[in-house]
Design a protein that fits this description.
The structure holds three protein chains of three kinds. By secondary structure, chain A is mostly helical. Chain A contains 18 helices and three strands. In chain A, helix 10 packs parallel to helix 13. The longest helix of chain A is centred in the first third of the chain and has 45 residues. Chain B has seven helices and no strands. The N and C termini of chain B lie close together (9 Å). Chain C is of the alpha/beta class. Chain C has one domain: P-loop containing nucleotide triphosphate hydrolases (Rossmann fold), CATH 3.40.50. Chain C is 38% helix and 24% strand. Chain C has a seven-stranded mixed beta sheet with strand order 1-11-10-4-9-8-7, with helices on both faces. In chain C, helix 4 packs parallel to helix 7. Chains in contact: A-C, B-C. Chains B and C meet through helix 1, helix 3 and helix 4 of B and helix 1, helix 9, helix 10 and helix 11 of C. Chain B: It comes from Marinicella sediminis. Chain B: Pfam families: PhoU.
Chain lengths: 424, 238, 291
């Protein structure tokens, strides 16, 4: 038997192994994709209703007597006026047969608590409305919403149903007369958190996340890049620097909640910084993100061919010039990628922010980095924890928004890398 | 002075090529030496057959020269020799010209001898020329040996000895001219003898040239057209 | 053929064998540099230069003069210290922490390793071209203009334009790139890139140009162009070239220095080194008996 035969025999086995490996690899990828699809579909189907708002169309009589204000009233007065009255009057108007107190209360809950604010905001915007009659689409209560979207089954016996027969009847009447409409839920993106699911919006959390990330970026990017440049290009090689390097690497592996504890102890208790504020969250997250960016930046700087540095030095550029004119631009794609990955990590981080009080229920939309606020992942956590049925879809919707931001950030990372990448 | 030596090249093929060249050069030298020996034997024994035999070999040396020239050209083209290798190639290319001339001179002598033998000319000067020839032969063998051993010291000695040959030739030639003056009838055969002696002197010069190439090859100095004594002294100083 | 000749024939071969057995042909005792390491009109003189990498001595006691307006080639086997020595001449070794240089290196009579000597200024006077063409990932124009810009050699755009053009002309590249000065320098061919690097170096108008195997990554035609360029440049610059190609050293240089194991073995006129080197090690290296 000569060599060719021996090789031929072993070939079969080798090819079989190769095919086996390929198949297994393919299977694992398929499994991963399936799970991802499952997850996404689940979230998407659950989140979808949250983007649709149910509205109840009512004709309200904004007469001056009921409201106690007129077109000349200042904002202050309008703010304190009772807008519940015209809405309730309109509801009673629609269903004049309702007279009992208990029934009336049920009837009033057809529209959301937010309906009066909706009306108030309209009047503030346009005081000329006072004294006129307006047909307005009011935000429906979450139960109405649930019935319309089918999350509450109308065919269930009354005892098992959250919405009782009376109310269901009104809803069906309104539906039949075309007074119940649905539309895209802009409110979700324009409002802060609320106890009422139909009123709860994500804007507060988005802005909170945005402010937190801005603080994080503003702090960690310059510090991390400067540290990386110093360590790679300028630092003397000695034990102290080695020690620092090892610790930076270790820092990247420290559980994030430890950073939260640190933030609580140092920034809030010692420096008396405001609780629940994006500024503290940003500082804590930048501490957490620093090692990630430093490590990524260092490897990006290390990957710049030494010939480039030599070329600059050989021409008489100073060390500083060679770094800032040549090394840094060449390393920028890598640095930016690292930074955005760090930012994405920070965006999804929950644990350290719990420690510094960003888990609080905050209705107001933060106006600055010192206002109390919450962030997207914590909003998800908070809603997931709420008992109301309507928050289930909000939770999924918030997850979708969070995922959207993560994907957008990764897309920016890829775009930046492509844009700054240069061949040499 | 230490003997020059060839160590192995990194490329064994190159090594073989250089050694081949040296071997072929020495073979060619040996051939020239043999021809000189034959022609001297023909003189001392006044043998027409030997002279004839010699003439029949004439082409060998020419062929060797052509072959060696080709080999050298090829090495220059392919190996770009430097330093001692370069000097070896240069020395070989120059030496083969001289050796080829030596071959030519022996042939010329053989033809002259055949003419003299045809006239049935006898003279004591055959013996004298043989003496001169032996000296030249010693020089030629010596220089070929020095070439084989790359012995510059020996080469210097031999180059100096060429003066002795020149002196000997001058004396012999003087005598032959006197003979011609005395005996005008025999001008032609004596002239033939004189030309033989002249050929030997030329062979001596060629041998000296070879010595000079050896010196160039070994110590890297071109000693042509310089005072050999000076060279020797400067070398001894080193 | 007589016996003596035959014997003579065999002799060297025998010696070769005996030498191969002992393998001591490389362990030749170091003696002082042979040849003429010094010259009359030195641009750079180095005296007793030692270079250490941590505890490792890379250069041992090198004394060598580099003559003005001539090309000196540094040759020797890999790791012999020729590149290290070259880099001491413009203090490129400063970038390596563990590298220490002892001895004197004088540029026009001034010690370049003095405390008050600024390495940046030194590198403006002693430029360097590297083995691998390393243009900046910028346009051709910016590559050449970089040096003059950082040193502030020109007062306005017009002057800079002239300097760039002039440098490209001197580097023999202008005709090839004049229509695409703002195209990236990295898009040129290897040989063009290397000439761009040379143009970039001469744009700073240095006095000395150090070249570290400038043509080793190039094809023969590009190499020939670089060599031709070196030949022209020596009118205005002093050039030190490290090369692995002995033919290249022979072609471009006036003097050649042979390094071996961190020591300067022999220096001489290139003609002499390549026809008749004095030191046994030089001879062996040049004829290809090792290295």
């Amino acid at each position: 038997m000569n060599n060719t035969d021996i090789v031929k025999q072993s070939l079969k086995k080798r090819y079989f192994k190769e095919r086996l490996f390929k198949t297994m690899g393919m299977l694992s990828i398929v499994t991963a994709i399936l799970f991802l699809l499952l997850l996404l579909t689940d979230i998407f189907t659950k989140a979808w209703p949250a983007f649709i708002q149910t509205r109840v169309e009512l004709t309200v009589d904004l007469n001056e007597a009921d409201l106690g204000i007129d077109a000349q009233s200042d904002e202050q007065a309008i703010m304190s006026a009772d807008f519940r009255k015209p809405i309730r009057a309109a509801l009673l108007n629609t269903f004049p047969e309702v007279t009992k107190r208990k029934q009336k209360r049920e009837l009033y809950s057809l529209t959301s608590m937010g309906a009066e604010f909706q009306l108030r905001d309209m009047v503030i915007e346009n005081p000329q409305l006072i004294g006129t009659q307006q047909t307005i689409q009011f935000m429906a209560d979450d139960d109405v919403d649930a019935v319309i979207k089918g999350t509450i089954d109308r065919l269930l016996p009354e005892s098992d149903r959250r919405v009782k027969n009376d109310k269901l009847g009104w809803i069906e009447t309104l539906e039949a007369s075309g007074q119940i409409t649905t539309g895209f839920n802009w409110h979700f993106f324009a409002a802060g958190d609320s106890r009422e699911p139909e009123m709860a919006g994500i804007k507060g959390a988005i802005l909170g996340s945005l402010y937190t990330l801005l603080v994080t970026l503003a702090l960690s990017f310059p510090v991390a890049v400067a540290a990386a440049i110093y360590l790679e290009e300028f630092a003397p090689k000695n034990r102290f620097i080695d020690f620092i390097e090892i610790n930076i690497n270790n820092l990247a592996a420290v559980p994030s909640i430890v950073f939260g504890l640190l933030g609580l102890a140092v920034f809030i208790n010692f420096f008396s910084m405001p609780r629940s504020a994006p500024i503290v969250g940003g500082i804590v997250l930048s501490l957490m993100t620093l090692p990630t960016i430093i490590i990524a930046s260092r490897s990006a700087i290390k990957a710049v061919p030494p010939s480039l540095r030599e070329a600059a030095l050989g021409l008489g550029a100073s060390k500083m010039q060679s770094v800032f004119h040549h090394v840094l631009p060449a390393a920028l794609p890598g640095i930016l990628t690292g930074t955005i990955i760090g930012m994405a990590q920070a965006l999804g981080e929950t644990a350290p922010l719990l420690m510094i009080g960003m888990v609080a229920f905050i209705v107001d939309i933060p106006q600055s980095v010192t206002d109390p606020s919450t962030v997207l992942p914590i909003q998800v956590f908070l809603w997931a924890d709420s008992p109301e049925r309507g928050f289930l879809e909000k939770t999924s919707a918030a997850i979708m928004v969070l995922l959207f931001f993560l994907i957008a950030m990764n897309a920016i990372a890829i775009y930046l890398r492509k844009k700054f990448e240069k061949k040499w | 002075m230490e003997h020059f030596e060839f160590e192995k090249h990194t490329s064994s093929e190159y090594n073989t090529e250089l050694e081949d060249i040296r071997n072929h050069l020495l073979q060619m030298g040996g051939q020239a030496e043999n021809q000189l020996r034959t022609v001297l034997k023909a003189i001392s024994e006044e043998s027409d057959e030997l002279a004839t035999e010699l003439l029949s070999q004439g082409d060998d040396i020419d062929q060797m020269e052509v072959d060696l020239d080709q080999e050298c050209t090829r090495i220059i083209a392919r190996r770009q020799p430097a330093a001692s290798d370069l000097r070896l190639i240069v020395a070989v290319m120059k030496s083969i010209t001289d050796i080829e001339r030596i071959g030519d001179e022996t042939e010329k002598m053989a033809r002259l001898l055949k003419k003299l033998f045809a006239r049935d000319f006898h003279s004591k000067y055959f013996k004298e020329i043989d003496h001169l020839g032996q000296e030249v032969l010693t020089n030629l063998s010596g220089s070929l040996n020095a070439l084989a051993r790359l012995d510059a010291e020996e080469a210097i000695k031999l180059a100096q000895r060429d003066q002795v040959i020149d002196a000997h030739f001058d004396e012999l030639n003087g005598q032959l001219i006197k003979k011609m003056v005395k005996d005008p009838n025999k001008v032609k055969p004596y002239l033939g003898l004189s030309q033989c002696a002249q050929s030997l002197e030329r062979i001596g010069d060629h041998a000296k040239n070879i010595c000079e190439y050896i010196i160039y090859l070994v110590i890297g100095k071109d000693v042509r057209h310089t005072d050999i004594e000076e060279v020797k002294n400067s070398l001894l100083e080193q | 053929m007589n016996e003596a000749v035959l014997n003579g024939l065999n002799e060297p071969t025998m010696k070769v064998q005996s030498n191969r057995e002992t393998e001591d042909s490389l362990n030749i005792e170091y003696t002082d540099t042979v040849g003429q390491p010094l010259c009359d009109d030195p641009k750079i003189s180095t005296r007793n230069v030692d270079v250490f990498y941590a505890d490792n001595q890379a250069i041992h006691d090198v004394s060598l003069d580099i003559g003005a307006h001539q090309v000196i080639a540094l040759i020797g086997p890999s790791g012999c210290g020729k590149s290290t020595y070259l880099r001491t001449l413009n203090r490129m070794n400063d970038t390596i922490d563990i590298c220490r240089v002892k001895g004197q290196i004088l540029l026009d009579g001034h010690d370049i390793y003095q405390k008050k000597q600024d390495p940046v200024l030194l590198r403006a006077r002693v430029g360097m071209v590297f083995q691998k063409p390393n243009p900046f990932p910028k346009s051709i124009y910016d590559n050449v203009a970089y040096g003059p810009r950082i040193h502030g050699l020109t007062r306005n755009k017009a002057e800079l334009d002239d300097l760039v053009e002039d440098s490209l002309i001197k580097a023999g590249l202008f005709q090839e790139v004049k229509d695409r000065l703002h195209a990236p320098g990295t898009g040129l061919s290897g040989g063009q890139q290397q000439r761009l690097c040379i143009a970039r170096t001469i744009a700073v108008q240095p006095e000395v140009i150090l070249m570290d195997e400038p043509a080793s990554a190039l094809d023969p035609i590009a190499t020939a162009k670089i060599e031709e360029l070196i030949n022209e440049l020596k009118e205005n610059f002093t050039i030190v070239i490290v090369t692995h190609s002995m033919q290249q050293a022979a072609r471009v240089s006036q003097r050649t220095a042979y390094f071996h194991m961190g020591r300067l073995i022999e220096v001489g006129e290139t003609d002499q080194i390549f026809t008749n080197p004095s030191h046994e090690l030089t001879e062996k290296y040049i004829t290809g008996r090792f290295g």
